[in-house]
Amino acid sequence: MSRDRPEPITVTHIISGDLWAGAEVQVYNLCKGLLASHEVVPTAVVFNEGFLSDRLRALGMEVDVASEKELSAVQIVFAIARHCRKHGSQVVHTHGFKENILGILGKDIAGVPRSVRTVHGNPETNFAPTQLHKRITHYLDTLLGRLRQRHVIAVSSQLEERLQPLFPGKVKKIFNFVDVEAIQRSKTLKADTGSHPFKLGIVGRLVAVKRVDLFLETVALLNKKGIDCTGVIIGTGPLEPALKKLAKDLEIDHLVEFRGFRDPVHDELQQLDALIMPSDHEGLPMTLLEALALEIPIIAHDTGGIPEILKAGECGWIVCDHSANGYAEKTLEVTQCSLKKRSEKSQRGLEHVRTYFGMKENMHRYLNIYCTTSKEQGSL
């Protein structure tokens, strides 16, 4: 190492890793960029063996698994502490509610002076009376964030606004990001003839918040209106049997394919005429960033960070009527658009994602956070 180059900072990430979802994909992208920078040495403690742990190891990172299936919360805390001591962690970066709490306790035991968190989605605040444990976890998470962490990173402007009152003076906005140029290089040529049937797709875990039921109802409604369209569902989850039954009840099971989990998802996205995202709420979804980078038309709910990604409708079609009728109407707009107009909107989307959600600028912001945090006085 050159004498002029400062020693790299060791940053330890704490994340569940049970899924290959938005937060996990972002942590992977971040760690990949950090390694390339040579300014930060990332390490990780994950709570589940899986796609994320395998991919981080493939990058050459030091990764420990503190299995939440086998260890108690106290044991996980001490596993985090051991990892931090072993690797000389200077900053601990937490991702998720449980990860925040256990990560902060572990770094304090290890004597790591500083910590930051990223909030990847809107925190749940409305708890039923029977969910006392969730309410306590939420308050503890907020309290520790205020008292024991230096910065809280929001991945969208909507999240930044929501988090400011909870963590006064601590919130920084750094968008989720993708390697736009690498995604563009993965593109294959697709002859866009506008021919039927119109292929709609949805990507994500098959769980209630993703509203795959609305997607199926939209496909059914469009076909009833005489629009020849099919549906592709990319992802797995606990609702898969119920959703297959719904497709059958709606008499569209012959029009809908359940493709299961796909990684990478780029090839599947490129086969779509439009991507639908009807989630009840979202943070800053990685799938939309990837779809914009691939120039896929997007129809998405007006929630969370989605309007910011779609530039208030300049780069896609935003749905305010959160119902099958609302999504069907917007899809109808897309089908009636000329291929030229669709292409123009997709081009605006590509430039937007390249400018605001690309790797270079957002990586620089993370590096700045780590460098300034590691030099600040005090222990937080």
Strand order of the largest sheet: 3-2-1-4-5-6-7
Low-confidence stretches: none
Q: What is the helix fraction of residues, given as a range?
A: 40-55%
Rg from Cα? 22 Å
Give me the secondary-structure category.
Answer: alpha/beta
Indicate the CATH topology of the largest domain.
Rossmann fold
Structural features, described:
This protein is of the alpha/beta class. The protein folds into two domains: about 10-175 and about 360-375, Glycogen Phosphorylase B (Rossmann fold); about 180-355, Glycogen Phosphorylase B (Rossmann fold, 3-Layer(aba) Sandwich). It contains 15 helices and 13 strands. A seven-stranded parallel beta sheet has the order 3-2-1-4-5-6-7, with helices on both faces. A six-stranded parallel beta sheet has the order 10-9-8-11-12-13, sandwiched between helices. The longest helix is centred in the last third of the chain and has 18 residues, at about 340-355. The protein is globular and about 65 Å long. The model has no long low-confidence stretch (mean pLDDT about 95).
